[in-house]
Design goal:
Layout lengths: L4 H7 L13 H9 L13 H11 L6 E3 L6 E3 L17 E7 L4 H13 L1 E4 L2 E4 L2 E5 L5 H14 L4 E5 L3 H11 L5 E5 L4 H11 L2 E6 L2 H13 L5 E5 L4 H17 L10 E3 L5 H13 L4 E4 L4 H14 L13 E4 L8 E5 L2 H14 L3 E6 L6 H6 L5 H10 L2 H4 L4 E4 L7 H8 L2 E4 L7 H7 L1
Helix pairs in contact: 1-2, 4-5, 10-11, 12-17, 14-16
Bound molecules: iron/sulfur cluster (SF4).
């Protein structure tokens, strides 16, 4: 937890010597609290004060990066227990487990299915993040063969290597450490060797224990070895106790600043009933899994989880918005009508749905209103004649269509005169409600 300026001030020498560039220690403390200066600007800090200040500036939950550049997954670095307090920053990584004892043809089929699982929802692409290769075959060749198949078939997923045999993980890392896979898993019995291995390749290690006390002791041991790239797997014998553990890890890391639990978490779903597995995955997604590994790649299972994730990880203080630009609908051409609206996702997609329903190829000019809907943006002076003209110029509208007329929403009919004056285009007032668009366009 960050210290307040007063708490920081208590740790300073209070001599007001000005060597930090500020007139008083209090002024320096205030800047430090805002993270506007670094602590080394004051040369007179005691070692103890330095340590306290350094620790307070670290994120309570470490940011962990898995995978290489084009398939990079970042998790952790969360700062709140509840989304409405601020927002959740790094969406849960969702991955599918591939067993290495399946026939090659089946594995290729699953990989292709995973690659095809892309959904577009309110202007965002939803997809899976990880493929976990699990060594169920107990054969090194089988394990390496499946990793090789995955690497050849796709490069857009972070990988997880899951094996109980350290030698197998060692061999896999000799070949594929450049992909920065996540290694599963260190326990109290094997952590010494696995930590050295992960440290030597600079990769992330899952640390697993039966309860939170053991988990905390284990991460402290890893920290003593100079290793901090950790993902926690709290084990539990029921959904409720796993939920409890995940919640306590987040709570202790944020509220008690318990460093040994200040890492993102991972849950491996193992339910034989696929419907229950998806249900439980959703529960852990809400509270507070950093990574979820599941055993299904069926679109109907994945869509629900990805949609839930999108909802949880949007910023509650910002309306969902799309990129403000000119969107062609259907085979829009130089003669197509141009409808103007805002870049609030809900508004845009409602208008889009009705334009598509009209079956008349058109353009939709989405104006940057910081995600506000038509009337709100108009009242806030974000949807104005001037902002529409700016959007027209940015979209180079006069080159896209040969006519010179615009359709604006009926609710902002008041601006039509000014818009005509500023743009030099004819302004047609459209229907107030999007549902009126199909008949309006047909009669235009
Ligand atoms: S250098 Fe340190 S002691 Fe001097 S004014 Fe700044 S904070 Fe205070």
């Amino acid at each position: 937890m960050s210290l307040s300026s007063l708490e920081i001030y208590k740790l300073l020498p209070k001599t007001n010597c000005r060597q930090c560039g500020f007139p008083t220690c209090l002024a320096f403390a205030m800047q430090l609290a805002k993270k506007a200066v670094s602590i080394d600007k004051c040369p007179f800090l005691s070692e103890e004060a330095k340590k306290t200040l350094e620790e307070s500036s670290l994120p309570p939950i470490r940011l962990i990066t898995i995978g290489k550049e084009d398939a990079k997954l970042e998790i952790g670095n969360e700062t709140v227990l509840f989304r409405h307090e601020e927002k959740f920053y790094h969406p849960t990584g969702i991955g599918v487990i591939l067993e290495d004892d399946l026939p090659d043809s089946e594995i290729i089929k699953i990989i292709k299915k995973i690659k095809g699982l892309e959904f577009e929802r309110i202007g965002q692409k939803l997809k899976l993040d990880l493929i976990a290769i699990r060594n169920r075959s107990s054969s090194l060749d089988g394990f390496l063969k499946v990793i090789d198949l995955v690497v050849k078939e796709t490069s857009s997923f972070s990988l997880v290597f899951m094996s109980q045999k350290i030698d197998f993980l060692k061999k896999a890392l000799e070949l594929y450490s450049g992909l920065k896979p996540l290694i599963y898993k260190a326990t109290k019995d094997n952590y010494l060797e696995l930590t050295q291995l992960a440290k030597s390749y600079g990769i992330v290690l899952v640390v697993s224990a039966e309860n939170l006390d053991e988990l905390s002791l284990l991460t402290k041991e890893l920290n003593k070895m100079g290793f901090f790239e950790i993902v926690l797997e709290p084990q539990a014998d029921s959904v409720s106790s796993l939920l409890w553990n995940l919640t306590q890890i987040r709570r202790l890391a944020l509220k008690r600043r318990e460093r040994s639990l200040g890492y993102p978490t991972l849950v491996v779903l193992e339910d034989t009933d696929k419907d229950l597995e998806i249900l439980f995955a959703s529960t852990y997604l809400i509270k507070y899994a950093g990574i979820l590994l599941i055993n299904t790649s069926e679109p109907e299972d994945i869509l629900g989880i990805l949609t839930l994730r999108q909802n949880i990880y949007t910023d509650p203080q910002k309306p969902l918005q799309i990129e403000p630009k000119l969107y062609p609908v259907g085979t829009a051409n130089q003669n197509s009508p141009v409808l103007v609206t805002t870049n609030f996702s809900l508004t845009y997609y409602t208008v889009l749905g009705e334009v598509e329903a009209s079956k008349i190829p058109s353009y939709i000019l989405s104006v940057d209103t910081e995600g506000m809907s038509v009337l709100t943006a108009w009242a806030a002076e974000k949807f104005t004649a001037s902002s529409i003209v700016t959007a027209m110029e940015k979209a180079n509208l006069k080159e896209k269509v040969s006519h010179r007329s615009l359709i604006i929403p009926g609710y902002v009919a008041l601006m039509s005169g000014e818009l005509e004056e500023r743009s030099g285009w004819q302004v047609i007032v459209g229907p107030k409600e999007a549902s009126g668009i199909p008949s309006f366009l047909k009669n235009l």
